[in-house]
Amino acid sequence: MMNSSKLFTPSYFDSFHCLMGACPDSCCKAGWEIPIDDETIDKLHAIPPLEIDKNIRTGSDGDTVLRVNKNNVCPYLNPEGLCEMYIRSGMMGDVCSKHPRFYEEYYTGDELAFTEAGLSVSCPEAARIVLSSGKADYEALCKEKTGDELLDFLLKARAKAFGLKPSQLIAYGELLQEEIDFGTLELPEGEIPDSEPIDIKSLCGFILGNTEILTPEWRKLLKNCEQGSYEQESEPLFDYLIFRFFLKAVNTEDILTECKLIVAIYELCKLGDNFTETVRLVSKELEHDDINLDLLRDFLSDS
Q1: Helices 169-182 and 255-268, axial angle in degrees (round to 10)
Q2: What single string gives the DSSP state of each residue in 82-126?
Q3: pLDDT value at position 303?
Q4: For residue 292, how far is the Cα from the chain centroid?
Q5: The whole model's pTM is what?
Q6: What is the pLDDT of residues 157-169, one digit of tens each?
Protein backbone atom coordinates (compact mmCIF):
# COMPACT_ATOMS: atom_id res chain seq x y z
CA MET A 1 0.00 0.00 0.00
CA MET A 2 1.23 3.50 -0.83
CA ASN A 3 2.49 5.71 1.97
CA SER A 4 -0.48 7.87 3.04
CA SER A 5 1.77 10.91 3.43
CA LYS A 6 2.51 10.99 -0.32
CA LEU A 7 1.96 14.43 -1.88
CA PHE A 8 2.10 14.87 -5.65
CA THR A 9 2.15 18.23 -7.42
CA PRO A 10 2.86 19.66 -10.86
CA SER A 11 6.50 20.75 -10.99
CA TYR A 12 5.46 24.42 -11.10
CA PHE A 13 3.64 24.20 -7.74
CA ASP A 14 6.46 25.53 -5.55
CA SER A 15 7.23 28.44 -7.89
CA PHE A 16 4.14 30.36 -6.76
CA HIS A 17 4.63 33.44 -4.60
CA CYS A 18 1.79 35.80 -3.73
CA LEU A 19 2.13 39.24 -5.35
CA MET A 20 0.53 40.79 -2.24
CA GLY A 21 0.08 44.55 -2.73
CA ALA A 22 1.19 44.31 -6.37
CA CYS A 23 -1.60 41.87 -7.27
CA PRO A 24 -3.84 43.33 -10.00
CA ASP A 25 -6.91 41.42 -8.80
CA SER A 26 -6.65 40.44 -5.15
CA CYS A 27 -8.51 37.35 -3.92
CA CYS A 28 -9.42 39.52 -0.89
CA LYS A 29 -11.94 41.36 -3.06
CA ALA A 30 -13.18 38.55 -5.28
CA GLY A 31 -16.73 38.54 -3.90
CA TRP A 32 -16.40 35.07 -2.34
CA GLU A 33 -17.32 34.17 1.20
CA ILE A 34 -14.00 33.95 3.07
CA PRO A 35 -14.03 31.14 5.66
CA ILE A 36 -11.99 31.54 8.81
CA ASP A 37 -11.30 28.64 11.15
CA ASP A 38 -12.13 28.60 14.87
CA GLU A 39 -8.50 28.12 15.93
CA THR A 40 -7.45 31.34 14.19
CA ILE A 41 -10.44 33.23 15.61
CA ASP A 42 -9.52 32.13 19.13
CA LYS A 43 -5.97 33.40 18.70
CA LEU A 44 -7.12 36.69 17.20
CA HIS A 45 -9.21 37.46 20.28
CA ALA A 46 -5.91 38.34 21.99
CA ILE A 47 -5.39 41.21 19.53
CA PRO A 48 -8.19 43.71 20.33
CA PRO A 49 -7.53 46.17 17.47
CA LEU A 50 -8.57 43.49 14.97
CA GLU A 51 -12.13 43.37 16.39
CA ILE A 52 -12.52 39.82 15.12
CA ASP A 53 -16.01 39.26 16.58
CA LYS A 54 -17.27 42.35 14.77
CA ASN A 55 -15.91 41.11 11.45
CA ILE A 56 -17.25 37.55 11.30
CA ARG A 57 -20.64 36.06 10.51
CA THR A 58 -22.19 32.72 9.57
CA GLY A 59 -21.83 31.90 5.89
CA SER A 60 -24.33 30.29 3.51
CA ASP A 61 -23.12 26.77 4.31
CA GLY A 62 -22.93 27.30 8.07
CA ASP A 63 -19.20 28.02 8.24
CA THR A 64 -17.81 31.10 9.96
CA VAL A 65 -16.76 33.66 7.34
CA LEU A 66 -15.35 37.17 7.31
CA ARG A 67 -17.94 39.93 7.00
CA VAL A 68 -16.96 41.66 3.73
CA ASN A 69 -17.97 45.27 3.11
CA LYS A 70 -20.57 46.56 0.63
CA ASN A 71 -17.97 46.28 -2.16
CA ASN A 72 -17.35 42.60 -1.29
CA VAL A 73 -13.88 43.44 0.04
CA CYS A 74 -12.37 41.74 3.11
CA PRO A 75 -12.38 44.10 6.13
CA TYR A 76 -8.68 43.37 6.74
CA LEU A 77 -7.44 44.40 3.29
CA ASN A 78 -5.65 47.71 3.80
CA PRO A 79 -5.17 50.51 1.23
CA GLU A 80 -1.76 49.12 0.26
CA GLY A 81 -3.39 45.82 -0.74
CA LEU A 82 -1.92 43.97 2.26
CA CYS A 83 -3.60 41.89 4.98
CA GLU A 84 -3.91 43.89 8.19
CA MET A 85 -4.74 40.69 10.06
CA TYR A 86 -1.39 39.20 9.07
CA ILE A 87 0.52 42.43 9.68
CA ARG A 88 -0.81 42.71 13.24
CA SER A 89 -0.87 39.04 14.25
CA GLY A 90 1.46 37.14 11.92
CA MET A 91 -1.40 34.78 11.09
CA MET A 92 -4.42 34.42 8.87
CA GLY A 93 -7.16 31.86 8.34
CA ASP A 94 -6.30 28.43 6.92
CA VAL A 95 -8.15 29.09 3.65
CA CYS A 96 -6.41 32.44 3.12
CA SER A 97 -2.97 31.03 3.84
CA LYS A 98 -3.40 28.21 1.31
CA HIS A 99 -5.09 30.07 -1.57
CA PRO A 100 -4.67 29.69 -4.54
CA ARG A 101 -3.35 26.24 -3.70
CA PHE A 102 -5.90 23.42 -3.70
CA TYR A 103 -5.56 19.92 -2.29
CA GLU A 104 -7.35 16.71 -3.35
CA GLU A 105 -7.18 13.60 -1.19
CA TYR A 106 -7.68 10.13 -2.64
CA TYR A 107 -8.51 7.11 -0.52
CA THR A 108 -8.42 3.33 -0.66
CA GLY A 109 -11.29 2.43 1.59
CA ASP A 110 -10.89 4.52 4.74
CA GLU A 111 -7.14 4.99 4.31
CA LEU A 112 -5.59 8.01 2.60
CA ALA A 113 -3.66 6.78 -0.44
CA PHE A 114 -2.17 10.07 -1.61
CA THR A 115 -2.83 13.79 -1.97
CA GLU A 116 -2.45 15.97 -5.06
CA ALA A 117 -2.04 19.74 -4.88
CA GLY A 118 -2.18 22.43 -7.54
CA LEU A 119 -2.66 26.13 -8.19
CA SER A 120 -6.06 27.58 -9.09
CA VAL A 121 -6.07 29.77 -12.21
CA SER A 122 -8.47 32.24 -10.56
CA CYS A 123 -5.34 33.94 -9.17
CA PRO A 124 -3.46 36.21 -11.64
CA GLU A 125 -0.01 34.93 -10.70
CA ALA A 126 -1.15 31.29 -10.61
CA ALA A 127 -2.81 31.74 -14.02
CA ARG A 128 0.43 33.14 -15.42
CA ILE A 129 2.35 30.12 -14.14
CA VAL A 130 -0.20 27.49 -15.21
CA LEU A 131 -0.86 28.93 -18.68
CA SER A 132 2.86 28.96 -19.43
CA SER A 133 3.36 25.37 -18.26
CA GLY A 134 4.03 22.28 -20.37
CA LYS A 135 3.08 18.61 -20.28
CA ALA A 136 6.36 17.81 -18.54
CA ASP A 137 5.11 19.74 -15.50
CA TYR A 138 2.56 16.98 -14.88
CA GLU A 139 5.03 14.11 -15.10
CA ALA A 140 5.46 14.24 -11.32
CA LEU A 141 1.81 13.34 -10.64
CA CYS A 142 0.91 10.04 -9.05
CA LYS A 143 1.49 6.97 -11.19
CA GLU A 144 1.93 4.47 -8.38
CA LYS A 145 -0.53 1.67 -7.73
CA THR A 146 -2.80 2.29 -4.77
CA GLY A 147 -4.53 -1.05 -4.51
CA ASP A 148 -7.89 0.49 -5.45
CA GLU A 149 -8.89 -0.96 -8.82
CA LEU A 150 -10.93 2.00 -10.06
CA LEU A 151 -8.46 4.62 -8.85
CA ASP A 152 -5.54 2.78 -10.48
CA PHE A 153 -7.52 2.55 -13.73
CA LEU A 154 -8.27 6.27 -13.67
CA LEU A 155 -4.62 7.12 -12.97
CA LYS A 156 -3.57 5.19 -16.09
CA ALA A 157 -6.44 6.69 -18.09
CA ARG A 158 -5.48 10.22 -17.01
CA ALA A 159 -1.88 9.70 -18.10
CA LYS A 160 -3.17 8.88 -21.59
CA ALA A 161 -5.65 11.79 -21.54
CA PHE A 162 -2.76 14.26 -21.28
CA GLY A 163 -1.80 13.18 -24.82
CA LEU A 164 -5.23 13.80 -26.36
CA LYS A 165 -6.75 16.84 -28.02
CA PRO A 166 -9.81 18.56 -26.49
CA SER A 167 -11.88 17.32 -29.45
CA GLN A 168 -11.11 13.71 -28.49
CA LEU A 169 -11.77 13.78 -24.76
CA ILE A 170 -15.52 13.13 -24.68
CA ALA A 171 -15.16 10.16 -27.06
CA TYR A 172 -12.39 8.89 -24.79
CA GLY A 173 -14.70 9.33 -21.81
CA GLU A 174 -17.38 7.25 -23.53
CA LEU A 175 -14.91 4.39 -24.04
CA LEU A 176 -13.70 4.62 -20.45
CA GLN A 177 -17.27 4.68 -19.15
CA GLU A 178 -18.01 1.41 -20.93
CA GLU A 179 -14.99 -0.14 -19.22
CA ILE A 180 -16.21 1.05 -15.83
CA ASP A 181 -19.82 0.00 -16.43
CA PHE A 182 -18.81 -3.52 -17.54
CA GLY A 183 -16.10 -3.86 -14.89
CA THR A 184 -13.36 -4.69 -17.39
CA LEU A 185 -11.17 -1.63 -16.66
CA GLU A 186 -8.89 -1.91 -19.69
CA LEU A 187 -7.60 1.18 -21.46
CA PRO A 188 -9.00 1.58 -24.99
CA GLU A 189 -6.54 0.84 -27.77
CA GLY A 190 -6.13 2.53 -31.11
CA GLU A 191 -6.81 6.08 -32.23
CA ILE A 192 -9.42 8.02 -30.27
CA PRO A 193 -11.95 9.67 -32.64
CA ASP A 194 -13.13 13.25 -32.42
CA SER A 195 -16.25 13.87 -30.35
CA GLU A 196 -19.39 15.81 -31.13
CA PRO A 197 -18.73 19.42 -30.10
CA ILE A 198 -20.31 20.92 -26.99
CA ASP A 199 -23.41 23.03 -27.72
CA ILE A 200 -21.95 26.23 -26.32
CA LYS A 201 -25.14 28.28 -26.65
CA SER A 202 -27.17 25.76 -24.66
CA LEU A 203 -24.37 25.56 -22.12
CA CYS A 204 -24.27 29.34 -21.67
CA GLY A 205 -28.05 29.50 -21.40
CA PHE A 206 -28.11 26.84 -18.70
CA ILE A 207 -25.38 28.50 -16.64
CA LEU A 208 -27.05 31.89 -16.99
CA GLY A 209 -30.43 30.61 -15.87
CA ASN A 210 -29.47 28.08 -13.20
CA THR A 211 -26.24 28.95 -11.43
CA GLU A 212 -25.12 31.66 -9.04
CA ILE A 213 -23.51 34.53 -10.95
CA LEU A 214 -20.90 36.54 -9.03
CA THR A 215 -19.92 39.23 -11.50
CA PRO A 216 -21.57 41.31 -14.24
CA GLU A 217 -18.64 40.44 -16.52
CA TRP A 218 -19.57 36.75 -16.37
CA ARG A 219 -23.23 37.49 -17.03
CA LYS A 220 -22.27 39.59 -20.07
CA LEU A 221 -20.05 36.84 -21.50
CA LEU A 222 -22.79 34.25 -21.06
CA LYS A 223 -25.40 36.47 -22.70
CA ASN A 224 -23.20 37.22 -25.70
CA CYS A 225 -21.96 33.62 -25.86
CA GLU A 226 -19.51 34.38 -28.65
CA GLN A 227 -16.04 32.92 -29.04
CA GLY A 228 -13.43 35.62 -28.97
CA SER A 229 -10.21 35.99 -30.88
CA TYR A 230 -8.50 33.09 -29.07
CA GLU A 231 -9.25 30.20 -31.42
CA GLN A 232 -6.12 28.06 -31.20
CA GLU A 233 -5.92 25.18 -28.77
CA SER A 234 -4.37 25.87 -25.38
CA GLU A 235 -2.55 22.76 -24.21
CA PRO A 236 -1.62 24.30 -20.82
CA LEU A 237 -5.28 25.01 -20.02
CA PHE A 238 -6.44 21.60 -21.24
CA ASP A 239 -3.75 19.83 -19.20
CA TYR A 240 -4.68 21.87 -16.13
CA LEU A 241 -8.36 20.92 -16.44
CA ILE A 242 -7.51 17.23 -16.83
CA PHE A 243 -5.39 17.47 -13.69
CA ARG A 244 -8.10 19.41 -11.85
CA PHE A 245 -11.11 17.22 -12.58
CA PHE A 246 -10.32 13.84 -14.16
CA LEU A 247 -9.75 11.81 -10.98
CA LYS A 248 -12.91 13.14 -9.34
CA ALA A 249 -14.70 10.33 -11.20
CA VAL A 250 -13.37 7.92 -8.57
CA ASN A 251 -16.14 9.17 -6.27
CA THR A 252 -19.00 8.77 -8.77
CA GLU A 253 -17.78 6.15 -11.28
CA ASP A 254 -18.91 8.67 -13.92
CA ILE A 255 -15.82 9.53 -15.98
CA LEU A 256 -17.90 10.53 -19.01
CA THR A 257 -19.46 13.47 -17.17
CA GLU A 258 -16.05 14.59 -15.88
CA CYS A 259 -14.70 14.53 -19.44
CA LYS A 260 -17.69 16.58 -20.60
CA LEU A 261 -17.09 19.02 -17.74
CA ILE A 262 -13.44 19.46 -18.73
CA VAL A 263 -14.37 20.17 -22.35
CA ALA A 264 -17.23 22.49 -21.36
CA ILE A 265 -14.99 24.60 -19.12
CA TYR A 266 -12.29 24.60 -21.80
CA GLU A 267 -14.77 25.97 -24.37
CA LEU A 268 -16.17 28.55 -21.93
CA CYS A 269 -12.65 29.91 -21.51
CA LYS A 270 -12.65 30.88 -25.19
CA LEU A 271 -15.51 33.35 -24.73
CA GLY A 272 -14.58 37.00 -24.99
CA ASP A 273 -11.40 38.58 -26.34
CA ASN A 274 -9.05 38.35 -23.35
CA PHE A 275 -8.20 34.67 -23.00
CA THR A 276 -6.29 34.80 -19.70
CA GLU A 277 -8.89 37.00 -18.01
CA THR A 278 -11.70 34.72 -19.22
CA VAL A 279 -9.86 31.69 -17.84
CA ARG A 280 -9.64 33.44 -14.48
CA LEU A 281 -13.28 34.51 -14.60
CA VAL A 282 -14.52 30.99 -15.39
CA SER A 283 -12.42 29.68 -12.52
CA LYS A 284 -13.88 32.24 -10.10
CA GLU A 285 -17.46 31.53 -11.13
CA LEU A 286 -17.35 27.75 -11.48
CA GLU A 287 -14.19 26.12 -10.14
CA HIS A 288 -14.59 27.62 -6.66
CA ASP A 289 -18.32 26.87 -6.35
CA ASP A 290 -19.16 23.19 -5.79
CA ILE A 291 -22.88 23.86 -6.17
CA ASN A 292 -22.37 25.48 -9.58
CA LEU A 293 -20.11 22.61 -10.64
CA ASP A 294 -22.64 19.98 -9.59
CA LEU A 295 -25.42 21.79 -11.45
CA LEU A 296 -23.22 21.86 -14.53
CA ARG A 297 -22.44 18.15 -14.15
CA ASP A 298 -26.17 17.35 -13.97
CA PHE A 299 -26.80 19.34 -17.15
CA LEU A 300 -23.92 17.69 -19.02
CA SER A 301 -24.80 14.16 -17.89
CA ASP A 302 -28.24 14.58 -19.49
CA SER A 303 -26.92 16.06 -22.74
Answers
A1: 170
A2: -BHHHHHHS---HHHHHTTEEEEEEEETTEEEEEEEEE-TTSHHH
A3: 86
A4: 12
A5: 0.94
A6: 999 999 999 999 9
